[in-house]
Structures are given as structure tokens and as C-alpha cells.
Amino acid sequence: MDVERYADAAAQALGLPLAPEHRPGVVRYLQMVAQMAPRVMDFSLSPAVESGNAFRPLGPEDLSSPDGDGTQGAGS
Amino acid sequence: MSAVVQVRDSLARIAATDGQVNAFTAVLAERALARAEQLDREGRGLPLAGLPFAVKNLFDVQGLPTVAGSKIERDAAPALRDAPLVQRLEAAGGVLVGALNMDEYAYGFTTENTHYGPTRNPHDLSRLSGGSSGGSAAAVAAGQVPLTLGSDTNGSIRVPSSLCGVFGLKPTFGRLPRTGTYPFVASLDHLGPFARNVKDLAQAYDLMQGPLAEDAACAQRPVEATVPVLERGPDGLRIGVLGGWFQSQTLPPALTAVNRVAQALGTSRLVNWPEVDRARTAAFIITSAEGGALHLPDLRTRAQEFEPLSRDRFIAGALLPAAWVVQAQRLRRWFAEQVAASFRGVDVLLAPATPCTALPIGTEWLEIDGQRLNARASMGLLTQPISCIGLPVAVAPVWGCDPAAPHLPLGVQIIAAPWREDLCLRVARHLEAQGVASAPVAILHAAHPHQATQVPQVLPSA
Questions:
Q1: Looking at chain B, which residue has its C-alpha nearest residue A6?
Q2: In whole angstroms, how far apart are CA B115 and each of A58, B56, B69, B72, B118?
Q3: What is the pTM of this model?
Q4: Selected catalytic residue, list B10, B70, B129, B132
Q5: CB distance from B336 to chain A under 8 Å?
Q6: Cβ separation of B275 and A33 shorter than 8 Å?
């Protein structure tokens, strides 16, 4: 993987400008993760193995109170 | 003791010591005293009886912006109400006295926060408190409050518990509602308490349990109280020590801590989980990707305002290929199945919480198992594979394991199968009763007048 080219292309695709002062650190970190990633990607898993994330369907009773500030006051 | 007296004592200790420790980012003196006076008038008989507590500043506190360790969120609208866990503790007679320092957006293990300054280890002010809930652990260790709340995505309750020498509990993933807290990695975020003794830890945990329908991750289970079983001890429990990764990715003092606990519990049984390093890598990838994606809008427009220690990691995380993340989530599921099978033959497992005692603030590199590693990331080597699959863990602090730093603690993780926090806490309580684990208040002298002026801003009543 050419990490530098990948970083520039992915950043462009996401509309995420890489400032010159940030780019070296971003590339360094991407290189580190890219070196680790085969530990995950090379591990053979049966197609039957599902995601660790499970989804819970929602009904109206699961929603926060209508007068509230949503489920997250923080960051909203 | 009246609630007002407890709160005044807490506020006085904060004023005297926080110039040195820097655990608090907001002290709510007016609100806390008003609440304490109300409790003394009307709240007799409530279980927490005026106990002061504080929360990591990613919890919503009515009237304050939820800064989550950031500069960016200072501009956010003030929270309209307290987070549900704060509400539950106050309904039980607790008194919120302030908000605590953390790594920006919880992405770190050291609380070397550039915007708010580092939180220092109360047992050695030149050293790290750990993170990302560093303020939560340090405030308890410094004797500022007897109870705090924090969050743990990859180790952020367990790492600072270990380095500051306090008891901590990371409950099962989904046990406590996360509503009203600033998220980091939705797949992995947990909330939990810190305390100086196991009874306070268990009581706070019990009081915070219970379903919350609108919460995205809460498992909607009924309360399963742990205080009534706390004194049952370890009799009848099958206890093992985690080997492999959990012994190779440590330095000798951490193994000493685990051996001391294992000896006290009468076990020498070794248990090995498969592919722990892959599980840790999966957690690393999921964290990077979800954390980066969450902050993408701000990374596009105001990257300069992020914490310099984590900004580049957030940006890089946003760029990770989707296939890595999907495979990491599937590997996580596979690993959870393997570990679940291991709990057919054992009830409780032990492992170090950190590879070493608290490092000096600013340490960049650490050598473990013959490898030169990033010191900050290495603090989570032993916690990350466990939170990745959501197991409950209590941390018990053990002292005097490091001949080079005999004044510093090291935490031992007490791990159980999902929803068995009771077993973690029973074992932690036994170790405390036997004198194997303890959380003494750090000896801190009253601040120099110059330092006293650096006590965080005292905010008006929320």
C-alpha cells in the first residue's frame, strides 16, 4: 500500500483538506495502522461470522421524550 | 455527617490541592452547596447521604457546555439537563461538585491535555494520571471526592485506576445508559465509577443500573444489585490468570502485582485466550475509524483547534478503508465467542491493567518484550482486548510492586463473563478486606498561594 498516495486520495474523496503541517503525522499514523491491519485482514473468517455490532430496531416507545433535547445534549 | 459538611470538606480539599493535581475543569460550589442544604432538609435516609461526587467532563451537566476535554466544544450550547447517571446518583443523595479533566474527546491514555493542562498523579506529581479519565481517578486518589464517574472505550477507566491507585469498575458493555455523554466510539464506549473502597464503588454502580428506553446501547436489563453479595468472597469461584499476551506485553512489576493477587486467591491456574493480538488490533481499527468519522465535520474546517497529540490520529482514522473496519467488527464477534467458551471452565480471570507503573509526564517511548513502543498507546495494551468484547472488569490497586517506584500502585484487572459484575466486585472486596488491594489518599500539602490561584473556575449554580 502506498500510504502517502492513499492518504491524499482518501482525504480528497472525503473533502478533508490535509494541511501541510498535519500531513506527515497523518501519514505516519496511517502507516502504523496499515502495518497492523493484516493481523485482522489475513485472519480467515467464515461468512457466517456476523458483525460485533448488533442493531436494535426502534419503535416509538424507544424515542426520547418529545419535549427533550434529543438523546444527546452533548455535542448536538 | 451532614451533606453540607461533606460538600464543604470536599470543596476545601479541591481548593487546597487542585492547583497541584489539576483534576477539575469546573467546580460547582454554589450548586453543590444548594443541593447539600436541600438534602439536609429533605433528603434524610437516602443511600448516598450527601456523598460528593464529580464526573469526567464528557457528562452533560445542566448549564455547562459538555467540553469533552476539547477547546472546540467550549462554544457548544449549555446542556439542558444532567446526564441520566448524574441524575440517578443525585436522586440517591449524591451531590455533584464538579467536572473533571480528560484526554480530548477521550482519545488517549494519559490526560496530557494541551488545552486544560495535564492531570498529575497525586502519588507523584511528576507522573501521569493515566487516561482518558485521568481527572476521575486523580480526584479520588487526591481525596478531593470519594466517588467519580468516567468512561472506558479501550481502557480509560482501568488505566487511570491502575496508575492512580483507586478502585474502578468498567461494567459490561450496554449495562449503563450512555445518554447525555459525549461519545467517542459507539461500538466500544462504556461508563463506570471510581472510588476509594469497593463498597462505595458497588453502591454507586447499583444505583446507576436500570434500563433507559431511549438509550441506543443500554441493554434494558433489570437492576442486578451487587452490594448484597459483596461479602461473599471468592469461595466457590474458579479463578484463573490470563497468560500469553497478558504476560508478554508487561514489565515485571505488573506480573508481580498479578502474582500477589493470584496467591491471595489461592490460584496458579493459567488460562490462554486465542488471538488476543488480533482482537487488540480490531479494537484499534474500530476506534480509529469511528472516532475519525465522528469528528469529520470539524476536522474538515477547524483541525487546527484539535488537541495536537490526537489530531493526526483522528484525521488518519477518518481515512481508513471500510473493509478493515467491517472485518475488525467480525473478528470482534469471533473473539467474543472464543472467550465465552473459556468461561465455561472459569468464573474470574486476572490480568495486569497496565504494563507498568505511572510514567513521567511527557514520556514518548517504552520498551516491552524487546520492542520499542509508543508509550502513550502502550498503556492500553492489556485493557483493549477486554473492552473490545465488553466484559465487566473491576480494577484493584496493589502497592509496592515496582522496586524502582515503590510509592506507586499497579492495578489488577478482575474480569468476569458478561453481566457478572457481582463476581468482579466480590473478588475486589475480598482483596481489599485481606489488605492485598487498597486506595489510600495521596499525601498532598496545601497549595502554595500561587498555585491556589490556578484552581479551576468556580462556576455559578447551574
A1: B319
A2: 39, 15, 8, 10, 9
A3: 0.95
A4: B132
A5: yes
A6: no
Cell numbers 462505595 correspond to what residue? B200
DSSP conformation letters of B31-78: HHHHHHHHHHHH-TT-TTTT-EEEEETTB--BTS---TT-SGGGGSPP
- B156 pLDDT higher than 60: yes
Q: How confident is the model at residue B220 (pLDDT cuts 50, 70, 90)?
A: confident
**Residue matched to cell numbers 506480573:** B255
- Provide the ipTM: 0.90
Each as own residue / partner, the long-range contacts of residues A46-49 (CB below 8 Å, 24 or more positions apart, any chain) are A49/B330, A49/B333, A49/B334
Residue B233 has pLDDT above 50, yes or no: yes
How far from chain centre, in Å, is Cα A33? Answer: 13
Identify whether B56 is a catalytic site residue.
yes
Report how many Cβ contacts below 8 Å link chain A to chain B.
Answer: 144
Residue from A6, A33, A58, A65 whose CB has the most chain B CBs within 10 Å, to mutate? A33
**B132 preceded by a cis bond (ω within 30 of 0):** yes
Interface contact B319-A74, CB threshold 8 A: no
Which residues are CB-neighbours of A22 under 8 A, at least 6 positions away?
A: B303, B311, B312, B315
Confidence of residue B452 (pLDDT cuts 50, 70, 90): very low
| pLDDT < 50 regions, chain A | 67-76
Cα distances (angstroms) measured from residue B417 to each of B76, B156, B171, B203: 39, 20, 11, 20
Residue-by-residue DSSP string for B315-371: HHHHTS-HHHHHHHHHHHHHHHHHHHHHTTS-SEEEEESSSSSPPBTT--EEEETTE
Region B319-344: mean pLDDT is 98
pLDDT for the residue numbered B3: 97
**Pairwise CB contact (< 8 Å): B330 & A6:** no
Q: Which residue has the cell 457466517?
A: A48
